[in-house]
Amino acid sequence: MNNDVFRKNKDAAFYFLLGAIGLVALAGLGAAFYMEHYGHVVTGMTNQIVWGLPHVFALFLIVAASGVLNMASIGSVFGKPVYKARAALSGLLAIAMLAGGLMVLMLDLGRSDRLIIAMTYLNLKSVFALNVFLYTIFFSVVVLYLWTMMDRKMHGYSRYVGFAAFIWRLLLTTGTGAIFGFLVARQAYGSALLPPMFIIMSFSFGLAVFMIVQAVMYRWNDRVLDEEILRRLKNLLAVFVAAVLYFTAVYHMTNLYFAKQTDFERFILLDGGIYTTLFWVGQVLIGSVLPLFLLFTAKKSSTVVVASLLVILGGFFQLYVFLIGGQAFPLNLFPGMEQSSSFFDGVIHSYSPSLPEFLLGMGGIAVAALITAIVAKVLNFMPDDTPHPASH
Amino acid sequence: MSNDVDNSRRKFIAAGVAGTAGLVLAPGVTLLDMAHARPAGEAASSAKRWGLLIDSTKCATGCNDCVTACGKENGVASTGHPETDPQWIRKIELKEIKSGRSHSLPMMCQHCAEPPCVDVCPTGASFKRADGIVLVDRHICIGCRYCMMACPYKARSFVHEEHEDQNPDVPRGKGCVEACTLCVHRIDKDQQPACVEACSAGNHGAMLFGDLNDSNSEISKRIATFATTQVRPDLALNTGVRYQGI
Amino acid sequence: MINPAKRRSVLGWLAASLLALLLAGAMPATAQDGQGGHKLIAKGDKCVRDVDFMRRNHMNILKHQRVETMRKGVRGSQDSLKNCIECHVNPATNSVASSKEDFCMGCHSYAAVKVDCFECHSSKPKASIVGTHPIIAPGQQSEGKDKQSGLSGKIPRQMQAKLASLNMGEGVK
Ligand code: SF4
Ligand code: SF4
Which of A185, A325, B160, C58 could disulfide-pair with A275, CB 3.0 to 4.6 Å? Predict the structure, then answer.
């Protein structure tokens, strides 16, 4: 227990920080209670846009959770000391973010009081139910992994458990992508490209989150990250961001190739209003091009932090366009015909996110931050590069 | 059960139904189709597969009889929030882009034989009854809405608000997903779905209800005679609701 | 949330109190024990099972029947919720769950056990029964409510005191 890194004069600040995050978490819970009490009519979600802002947050947290574990995997599986020193922190972040994301998903349910039912009645054919397994085992494997890293007697197993965690995190993201991959009827989803795309996204979002948390921890402890390590990590992030961009391009190109998908592609890329803007400005410019530029030119760690923040922001835009934009485009029941009804057939569905939804999503992030802050305070999760010089 | 008993029961029921409902039945809707009495205590059987045949050439643009009847029967009413109001059945107006031909038809849960909603439901709340009717078990539905994402026909609705004054035969409430039940409570009493009854009562005769597994039923005979289609046949869901004249 | 051990003890008390309720059935009601008293409203004089058994197991019977009806389409059972409501409806409110006087809520609100049924199910019988109740005629409702049903009972005062001292918690969800 190396508590001296948190010096006394910082204690007050730490508790203040905890209090502030706690308030956000409470606001999230309050919002969930409000939605539960009045029903989803108080949200922006409708029978057209059935998954809304909470799902964007949940999806981000879950995807990033599996991605952040990558640090640990590179360390254990490929034996890189720089990453090994960060394995514990990445494991902690993975657990915290998965918990935050699942909390949001759960509290958004129409009947969140039926958690027991959700855990005990499992339809094994459902990708959702499959994900329940994936999440539970992910939690256990990562906890076990942390144990092997923190307990000297267990060190010998670290490598094997790390390998298991690596495999499992790939499965987990595949499972998340598959949730959409099975929605064959909707033009935005139902693509075999989704699971690999989600894996790449998880690499990028996860590393961005890690960079920020790491920067905060170094700052807090008045330490400076070794330049060589920073350079390596930022280059890795740049590669991931570029890969996401590449996958996005391939996804839209393949869609354009299929004639029946061109109208949907037109919607997202050309005349989808807010979704088109969010795609080009939010996802491509803010979330990819700008951070790439920053990462390639960055000398200081603060620039890398800004780039990471942009990657995260861009990730939210990307998931928003993917999830909400994908639902906003109407189902085409009768190809070749104009359709209209009182149930909004044939028209672009509108969605305006509400405050409770936003608060619930922020609550999920706050819970993840709380878990990270508290556990990192009690146990030592500070990356320690001393025994392994960065020049390795 | 011996054939004799079965037949006499059929006749008895047919007579009973004819006595009470005969006046409102349109010609062409045979009573035999409805005479599938299932005694109390007996479970629905996979020997039957209930289905609908909808003739869009007879379905008038602007006519809403089926929708109104469904709302009344199942207690599905507008709350003044069109975007969150559940709709079990809706009229879709169609216009062929090339020819300009326009027509109209009712759209509801298609009671797929391979229902995607059932496949994706995490708890098993969505299920298909032995006789092909796809239902939501509200006791274990957690309101995740995955089924709504999966249904190709936008047939399902999430209940966004509290409801009161439910029909005792049709429980429904906030936080769960619901859809057309094919009026399962009426079918189990040897009645037709409310929409079909209303369509015949209005002398439109655009909807026919019956057993798709029975080759002698009116619906099977018509499907064997005329060109009928399923909506989105490319998805190969083998829908229980078929259309004519699309 | 109530932990399992506590729940078990609450259930134990519940069973005991229900037994007391049954035993007290024959005792004359007095004006003072209005509050916790629960009146058994029933049209007929015989339940589908033994009354004591029903008090403890009605939820299991309902759950069993719900699967039969919902999943398999078995209709017309005497164990259906609809059948329960037909018989136990309070003629004053035409419901089994709209007020604490009604059949289901009388006990459930007293024991602080949440009933989920009526969030979806109607608590009313299909046709209004006011005026057709075989035991209570509408005119009789205002006075001497307690003595109307042969099954009605009161919990003795000391029993009530014991129950009140138990913190049963609000929401056993
Ligand atoms: S139409 Fe939709 S709701 Fe109905 S069975 Fe098919 S997939 Fe399920
Ligand atoms: S909303 Fe209910 S019925 Fe639909 S998938 Fe979720 S649990 Fe199943």
Answer: A325
What does the pLDDT look like over A61-84, one tens digit per residue? 999 999 999 888 888 878 788 888
Interface check for B107 against chain A (CB to CB < 8 A): the answer is: yes
Q: Are B5 and B83 found together in one domain?
A: no
Which pLDDT does position B31 carry in this prediction?
43
Kindly state whether residues B121 and B215 are assigned to the same domain: yes
Do B89 and B179 sit in the same domain of this protein? yes
**Does A99 score more than 90 pLDDT?**
yes
Residue-wise pLDDT for A187-241, tens only, equals 889 888 888 999 999 999 999 999 999 999 999 888 888 889 999 999 999 999 9
- Cβ contacts below 8 Å, chain B against chain C, sum to 57
Between these two residues, A293 and C141, which has the higher pLDDT value?
A: A293
Of A219, A243, A212, A225, whose CA–CA distance to A369 is shortest? A212
Tell me the nearest-neighbour CA distance from B183 into chain A, angstroms: 20
- Same domain for C146 and C105: no
List chain A domain ranges: 18-378
Ligand 2 binding pocket includes B153 (Cβ within 6 Å): no
Radius of gyration of chain B (CA): 18
Query: Which secondary-structure segment (H or E) carries B93?
Result: strand B89-96
The rounded distance, in Å, linking the Cα atoms of C154 and A184 is 61
Residue of B119, B139, B154, B177 with the most ligand 2 atoms within 8 Å of its CB, for mutation: B177
B121 alpha carbon to ligand 2 midpoint, in Å? Answer: 5
Is the full-model pTM beyond 0.95?
Answer: no
Distance of CA B166 to the CA centre of its chain: 19
* Domain match, B6 and B26 both: yes
| Each residue's pLDDT tens digit, C35-47 | 345 667 887 778 8
Range of the domain at C91: 31-119
Over the range A82-117, which residues count as b (16 or more CB within 10 Å of their CB) and which as e?
bbbbbbbbbbbbbbbbbbbbbbbbbbbbbbbbbeeb
Q: Which of C56, C60, C52, C53 is nearest to C79 (CA)?
A: C60
Packing angle of the helix pair A355-378, A53-68 (nearest 10 deg): 20
Check pLDDT > 50 for residue B32: no
Shared domain for B70 and B150, answered yes or no, is yes
ipTM: 0.91
Please give the Cα distance from A122 to A131 (Å, whole number). Answer: 11
- Give me the number of domains chain C comprises: 2
The answer to whether residue A344 neighbours chain B at the CB level (below 8 Å) is: yes
Distance from CA of B212 to the nearest CA of C (A): 18
How distant is the Cα of C93 from the closest Cα of chain B, in angstroms? 14
The CATH number corresponding to A18-378 among 2.60.40.180, 1.10.287.110, 3.10.310.50, 1.20.1630.10 equals 1.20.1630.10
**CATH (domain of B182):** 3.30.70.20
Quick check: C120 and B176 CB within 8 A?
yes
Average pLDDT value for chain A: 91
Domain that holds residue B106: 50-244
Minimum CA–CA partner of B162 in chain A: A39
A133-144 pLDDT, tens digit each: 899 999 999 999
